[in-house]
Design a protein that fits this description.
- This protein has a four-stranded mixed β-sheet with strand order 2-1-3-4, covered by helices on one side.
- Helix 1 packs antiparallel against helix 2, helix 1 packs parallel to helix 3 and helix 3 crosses helix 4.
- It is elongated, with a radius of gyration of 18 Å.
- Helices cover 41% and strands 11% of the residues.
- The longest helix is centred in the N-terminal third of the chain and has 14 residues.
- The relative contact order is 0.12.
- The protein contains seven helices and four strands, in the order ααααβααβββα.
- It starts with 18 loop residues before the first helix and ends with a helix.
- The chain folds into two domains: 70 residues, no CATH class; 77 residues, 3-Layer(aba) Sandwich (Glutaredoxin), CATH 3.40.30.10.
- The protein has 169 residues and is of the alpha+beta class.
């Protein structure tokens, strides 16, 4: 299910959750539902277990916590650390720290978007890659830098983009 920020999330209440999602949420909720201000803790722990918080999961959590669905959605969209769709198998992070920015980071963003056919923050249709921005990976002498999973690639040029992906296909 794709996420549309304008969608009426009340329509997803009846969508079936996977047994794994439901089990993970039930475990987190049973341990934390009665804590004051449990929303952030519950959302963080569910995401740690499942990897993201889909619209059906949002509805389930809202009902369990007795809060409006709009509250859950508001928290998820306010904090950039939350994801509402699963990550791809490989996470590509393009550094836009100062050194990487001035040495061509924005050109790398354009090239990765073109090659993968997605925008920043999106995942390819085959769930292979998720494209994101990061602010600094501490390898400024190698700028511009791209991280694919835990691998740091330095001095990446737009001409290197397709080649950089081959290892992960």
């Amino acid at each position: 299910m794709s996420v549309n920020p304008n969608m009426d999330l009340t329509t997803v209440v009846d969508v079936t959750l996977t047994p794994e999602e439901k089990s993970a949420m039930d475990e987190v909720l049973s341990a934390n539902r009665d804590r004051p201000g449990a929303t952030m803790l519950v959302l963080t722990l569910v995401q740690e277990k499942v990897g993201y918080i889909s619209p059906p999961m949002q509805a389930y959590i809202a009902k369990a916590l007795g809060v409006p669905l709009s509250h859950i959605y508001g928290v998820l969209t306010f904090y950039s650390s939350f994801r509402m769709v699963p990550l791809g198998r490989h996470k590509i992070s393009i550094c836009l720290g100062t050194a990487c920015y001035v040495r061509g980071g924005p050109m790398l963003i354009e090239k990765y978007q073109q090659v993968l056919g997605v925008k920043m923050g999106e995942t390819t249709e085959d769930n292979r890659f998720t494209l994101e921005i990061c602010r600094c990976v501490g390898a400024c002498s190698q700028a511009p830098v791209v991280m694919i999973d835990e691998d740091i690639l330095g001095r990446v040029s737009p001409a290197d983009v397709s080649k950089s992906l081959r290892k992960y296909e």
